[in-house]
Specification:
36% strand
Length: 88
């Protein structure tokens, strides 16, 4: 676990972050920007050393959903961020 890359289900972001914070090792997490911000957002931003916007609301090039024949582009419902966590 030298540089975990995590894309948790949206409903489990809080518990996953709490679990990973306990290891005190740097990791990268992909998260949506909910409005209003959820309980885990302030702590994540305080521990975040860098972040990159992967896509804005409505972008069709960020998420793919499976169908019977292939993966189809799906519009983002929120902005998606990659956050590098390295402050403990």
């Amino acid at each position: 676990m030298s540089n975990p890359y995590v894309f948790p289900p949206f409903g489990l972001i809080g518990p996953v972050l709490k679990f990973l914070f306990g290891f005190k090792i740097p990791f990268t997490v992909i998260i949506p920007e909910f409005s209003p911000p959820l309980f885990w957002w302030p702590e994540l931003m305080a521990r975040c050393s860098d972040k990159l916007c992967l896509g804005e609301q409505g972008d069709m090039v960020v998420l793919l959903t499976p169908s019977m024949s292939a993966y189809r582009p799906t519009p983002c419902t929120t902005s998606m961020w990659a956050c590098r966590v390295s402050r403990f």
